[in-house]
Amino acid sequence: MARPADVGLANGLATELTRALSQVVRGKPRPIRLALVALLSGGHLLVEDVPGVGKTLLAKAVARVVGGSFRRIQATPDLLPAELTGVSVFSAQREEWEFRPGPLFANVVLVDEINRTTPRTQSALLEAMEERQVTVDGVTYALPDPFFLVATQNPFEHAGTFPLVEGQRDRFAVVVEMGLPGRETERELLLGHGGVDSLGELEAVIDPRGLRAAVAEVRSTHCAPAVADYIVDPSTAVRAHPEVRLGASPRSSITLLHAARAQAVMGGRSFVSPDDVKSVAAAVLSHRLVLSGGPDLHAAATLVRSVVDRVPVPRG
Question: pTM of this prediction?
Fold first, then answer.
């Protein structure tokens, strides 16, 4: 496993992670890039798409290349909050209450089909995603550092599902759609190149300590005041758009900055450019919007891109 000193700059880590993930998740450079943007920016990832296109595969592959601990949670309507956070159990032998951590206590956590569990259980993720901690019976427990949550959902199926509330969606840094594979990619999968069968061949590229250092490096990437304005302006314009009923929060502007920093580092730059902002804006903002016709990821992404294209690019 590579140590921080061996990895060098976060750009080198991103290159190695991209290479490793591409061995398993074939023909999907954009989903891989955005997944790494979420990871290196210190945020969380939401993967939305139809069944069978590799949502869970991407999450598992990221967990393997990161190293550290990994837990998978299959969301169901009868899943309880305590089954995520953990419970306090009385020990007769020690005559005291003991906390037994739930599956959220891992470096990488996959919540598969998150919209199949109830809003009550979904709410157990809010504190964990925002504050990297959980509170059980009045006692607060810190989650492992780093803590990266990946959730998947099929937005087209409504039977037995519970839509994510706005506060939940707002805590995901980036949304990714996998899309259907191209003909050549699907042919490679049929011949055993990539896919689930290749997961066992993946080795960790970085450990949790190295990932913490990489995220810290990304967070310190320089952003000029003019580029910061370029981040705020489209967020403000999106909120004022007549088709937007609920716009992106100020948290989304901060997330957009972190994502643009990650994009810059992955591109080998030590500063954020307007192109970095443009390349991640739709993935950061679209899932947070509620349009006049209701949530619509495709329409929201198109709207965000059109707004960003109209915002004047800072010069100099």
Answer: 0.90
